[in-house]
Structures are given as structure tokens and as C-alpha cells.
């Protein structure tokens, strides 16, 4: 009995020490009874008794069904403090903030969007003028729970053109593409679940998944899509709930999923019961449509999402989700609860722009312009020893390897000091295995300064290395 | 030993039976080891062993640090299945969906917004025409992380006018008022936390808090604000993390916080370390500003939020948060991670409308029109035995008691069958103690049909009662 008491007190002292040293700050969850017992090599009942006594003292607080928490004032969710501490230059949130701050003198080859002058400005101005004459309900009323029927009908037809059968009732409008993925994560994930992503993938997927407090496992991406053998291994090893990927043109690599990889991937997805989110925001950049997972799967286990931020306007927020009708129904509830009604104006302006007779012609010209910019940028980068990993068929990105031994984060730091925002590889890599890669947005590389600043940063790096 | 084995097997059988009967569906969390041990009157170690064996069999899955879950395919978050089963008529999500569906022949005295014809349509049309000539960056670019500086400056000045000191740097724009509260909840709450709300309160707070899987405790609301004694008791009994309330004009009661109650409330908030969210979306309806908690508190523990959906446009999504600078910083990360950049267009149009020379005049006329409509609607309701709980100083709502013994949900059901959407009291009441109340939106009561349908529904109820 005396020995048991001593052990209980030892556990209590251990917890108190953790709190005193601020290893455990107020509001954090203590290790589970089982985990604590294992780590301190005592019995489960010893830990239970120690936790109960600390709770009686008010040092920790039990939450029904959720374990014990360190008592004290609220500790807010600090995304930057979750997960391993990253260099600022490869922290997804830092990269986002740098890209989104609008000092017009700063150049942004690291950002993920087109310059304003490359967008369909005339169409948008026409749409705004037309909107100024719209019926008053379009100007002031909330949208319906699923969003503008005319836009959903148009999206349904556009999806049919790339082989995806989605009735307008299977579509729900959202505030943006990121909002679409966030809603799906809230709908399907619980903290501690595992999610597969491509490695590399769009860096904000990392920030988003951190906010959901899930485990993230990266599957290496090949020029034809994810590495199928490693994907199968990850399914076995981690029983993930969700896989989030880009379809069409992959961000950041510019790669295109091959039909063979798509087919193998879907077999694995079918067998495992994994749900897949296919983010299709670059669809309109393609000349030849790549295979869509949602087309093969018939929206059974694949959820298809998109937005208009890359081709119409990032200033007008509107995205969409296409999914199984029962999931759309649950997603509507979640959208209403967390953002109430959507807006009508954004959807109406997007619809007017997409159906404007000039949009198709504008996109044809834009695809040519991007192809030319990809070629020109690749040539200029190669002169600096910066080599594209592949030659993308579409889109604005070149995923490039820097000269051997170069630390992309250090180069990004030098460039930022000269007013050029870069996107270093490890911001995209879950395994931090892209330390010598960088993503270039060819539409933001027209200014010679980009290459001058980069050349100097690379030279300094190579001298110091 | 034999007896222990038997007990372990009993626990395993109990869990298996729960799964077989679908009491525990795939993806749900099993009771904690402690809770299960208590409810089955066995030792903690018996439950630990039973869970471990079931996990080895693949019946349940341990998640590190989060307990055991029933194995199987993904079980999405179904908001309608969380918490007690409610009558459809008082389910917040059902009330929202009915109100947001746009059959123009349906009358909506139960909805929470003005008719399109009461809004500042001319100002909006002017703003849209001006926006069509705006620089291209305003049309196509993402907003900065905190949002349009000019709108934040205007909001800072508007807040100063009601006594709230908030520098533009303490303000962040959001997609809507609900989005603002949702971000704050994600920032400050964990599942299982306790949140205080007014009883009654805006019904979507219930849906929103369900999505966060927190415990909700209602504090009875008096005509001067929350009942301070019961508020103090709730602080003692539940150690809540957050209190969410309306400032200005309270939804649904139309009550106004008195300076005395505000002061007492803030003393309690100070002592307890509770964080308070003050939702100020009805500010522009006031003639005489009511006390704001954020004004007294200096944004130390009070977070002030608002939007423009009620007075400018619900079609153009834009809200804001004013809070401590360190919290704003954390909220920016969370906003970027979950919605990426905000839009510029919505903020620009809101700014143009609010600074239009006609807005103030429009609001003056609107306040008079609402005052008249409150009087007229109260008179017509009283003839039917429907009595306003108080005479609001501002806003669009009358919170009314139906004739004794009337079930508001049943009345709402009858009215809906006749094409009139009502808002029965228990949709607003956490304790379901407002079964004979109803909220009327006076701006949506111009049509005689509202009163005719209501009179018939009340007559039937009284005959059948």
C-alpha cells in the first residue's frame, strides 16, 4: 500500500513538474491514462488515481469523454506551434502571408496566381455593370443553401465535358476552394485521423490539415501521379481516412496524372474505403483534359472540388463541392452552421463571366501565353543551373531543382531581402525532402529583376557552401 | 483469474453488442476507460484489457491520445444527430433551410433579415457601377491577410463612436459574421469545452456550437440582459471557456443590455477569465447606442464581431473581428489555413456603400420604418392574443408569447403548410423552455396573410387543446 501511494505521488509530481516548467501549458491535454502509465512504467490504476487527486486539487480538469487538461486560462490554437518547428521560409503560413501582402514593388514568382493584367478583366467589368442592373434580390438576399441553381447547372455541364457525372443537386457552392476542402475535413475527420497528401503538394494543404490536428502522411509524387506502390504501403501502414490531391495540373510539380496511375489508384481507393478529395482549381488551364478520379469513380468515394480564383478572380470568393447526395446534405448543414447563408453576388458575377462570349477566347489566349512563359522561364532558369523537374503540359508552375547543394530556404531568404518572394521546396514537402527545389510561377517572372536577384542569391549560396 | 477473464469478456461482449445494434456506429468514440469502468462497475484495468483485445481483433481502433473508436468506414459528422432529437420545427438547421429557400410565394415572418425592398438598393447599385471602373487589382486579386485597410479604418472609427477602442491593426475582415464566430470558436475551443449562451439566443449559435461538439449552457435572459445571479452560478458550476452574446439589440428578444447589468457581467467575466464574444450585427439599427461589453473591457477578454448582412447586403459576404493583437495574429493564421485569402470585391463594395452620402439618410428612414412596423405588428398580434415580451427600442424582432397552452412548434407546422415560415421559440432556447414563444420579424409582416394564417393555426390549436 505504501509503495502504491508513493507511485501515485510520483506521477502527481511528474505532472506538476511538467506544468511548472511550462512543458504542459494551461488548456493542453495530459497524456491518456494508458500512455502515461506506459511512459512512467506504472499501472493504469496508479495514473487514474494520480489524475483524480490532481483534479480534486484543481491542478487539472477532467473533460467528460475527453481526458484531463491542464487547468488555467484559455490557450488558443496556435497553428505555428503545432507540429515540428519549421524555418520561417518554408512555413506554409509565412509563405502565404508574404505572398498576400500587397506591396506593389515586391515581385512574387513564389505566389500561386496570375498577375492582375493576365486575368479576364473586361469580362469582369461587364459582369459588374450587368450586376448593377440585376433584380434587387440578387443584390441583397442570402443565397439558397446549395447556392445559385444556374451556376450549379453550368458546373454540372462543365464537369460532364471532362467525364464527371454530377447532377446540379450533387453540387454545393462554397466561399472558395479552400473553404470547400475545409468543410469536407470538418465533415469527415476527427483530430488524430491520418490524411494522405502528395509529397510535394500545395503548401496550404499542410496549414489546413494542421488546423484539423490530424496526422499527415506524404506519398512521393512521380511525373505520372502518386507513386502507386508507396501509396499502397501508406494505406496498409496508416489506415488513412482521406487523400487530398490536385487533379488536372498538379501543384507544385505541373505533372499530369496518367490514366494507368489513375486506374491503379482507384483500385486501391476502392479496396481500402479511403475517401479522396480531388482539387480541380486549375481545370481551365488544360488544353487536353487529364483523367479525373471523380470521372472513373462516379463520385462514390471521390469528392470533386474547384473554384474560380485562378482563372476568373480571386477577389470574388466562390468555390464548389461535387459529392454523393447524402454527403452534400450533411455538408449543407455544416455550411449553414458555420457560415450561415452564402452570398448571391459572387456566384452571379462568376456565372456572368463564365458565360460571357469572350471567356473561351480569353482562356485560349491565356493558355498560349502561359505556354510561351513556361518555355521562356525554363530557358532563363536553366542558364542559372536551375532545372525544371519536368516540362508541364499546362498551368503556371515550374517545379525546379536548384544547383546541387543549394538550400532553397536560404535562397528564398536572400531574395526576400531584395523584394522578391520565392516558394522554397520544403514548404510543399511533408517529409521536408525538397530542400533544393523551388516552385516558379512563370506568369510572375516577366521582370528581369527576378532572375538578377536569384542569380546573386545562388552565387552567394554557392560561395558560402 | 477466471473471474477477471470473465469480466473482461463481459466488457467485450457489451461493446460488441453496442456495435451490432448500431448504438455505436463506425467512427464513433467508445466511452473512456474510466467512464466505461464506472458504468459497468468493473475495474479500469479490466476495461483496458477488454479494449486492447477488441483492438487486436480489429473491432475497434485506438487513436493515439484520443481513445478508442469503432472501426469501419468513415462516419461523417451529422449535425442533426448530435445532441437531443428535436422536433423538426425547432431544429435550428431546419429553420435556416426553410428561411433560405427562395420560393417567392412563401412569406417569412420567421426569418432574420429585411425584405429586399427595404435595403439600400440604390447605394449598392452605385457601388457596383463604381466597382466596374475600379483598378484591376481590386477586381481580381486576393485581399491582404487582415483585409482592406480602408474598410478596417472606417470600422475602427465607427467603433470609437460607440466607445470601443480598436486600432485598424486589431481588426480582421472575415467572410461573414457567422464565419467570424466560427473562427473564434476554432481558435479558442476544444470538443467537450463548455460555452455559455443567452437563453433564448440566435438559433444558429446552437447549430454552430454543435459543429464544435461543445457543451452548451443557457443563461436566462432578462429585459436588461442575462440574469447576473444565474450567470455567476453557471460560471461556478461549469467553468465555461466562452460566452457568446448579442450586443446592441438582442436576438430574438429585442432587449437592450442595461449599464448596470453590463458592469456586473464584466466583473464576473474579469474574475473568471472567461472570454466573451459580442456579436454586434444589429448595431446600425440603434438610435441610442446600448452599452457594449467591448467598450468597458477594452478588448482584453471581449472579442467584438459584426457584419453588414442585415443593413447593407446579405448577398455580399463580409464580416469582421476586433480583438487583442496577439489573438488577431493567431486568427489570421487560422483564416489563411482554412479559407486562404479573403476577397477584395466584397469589402470594396461594402466600403463604397457605407461611405456613400445616402447611407446615413437611408438608415434614418429605415429606423423610423421599423419603429412603425414594430408598433403595427404588435397591435395586430395582440388582437390574436399574442403578446410581445417587451417593447424593443430598435430592430426588426418582436419576441412574443402565444395564448396560454399553445405549442409554438405545432403552430409553425400549420403555418408552413399554408406557405408561412415561422420561428418557434424553442429553436432559440437551449433549455427548450420557450415552447409557447415565437419570434416575429416585423419587416416581413406587411402581408395580411401572415395574420390570417396565424389566426387559423392558433384557433385550431386552441380547439384541439
Automatic annotation (TrEMBL), chains A, B:
Highest rank taxon of the organism: Bacteria
Record carries keyword Phosphoprotein: no
UniProt KW Transcription regulation keyword: yes
Signal peptide extent: none
PROSITE patterns, alphabetized: HTH_GNTR
InterPro entries on file: Aminotransferase_I/II_large, HTH_trans_reg/aminotransferase, PyrdxlP-dep_Trfase, PyrdxlP-dep_Trfase_major, PyrdxlP-dep_Trfase_small, Tscrpt_reg_HTH_GntR, WH-like_DNA-bd_sf, WH_DNA-bd_sf
SMART domains: HTH_GNTR (SM00345)
Recorded GO MF terms: DNA binding; DNA-binding transcription factor activity; pyridoxal phosphate binding; transaminase activity
Keywords, ordered alphabetically: Aminotransferase, DNA-binding, Pyridoxal phosphate, Transcription, Transcription regulation, Transferase
Domain HTH gntR-type: 5-73
Family: In the C-terminal section; belongs to the class-I pyridoxal-phosphate-dependent aminotransferase family.
Protein name: Aminotransferase class I/II-fold pyridoxal phosphate-dependent enzyme
Source organism of the structure: Xylophilus rhododendri
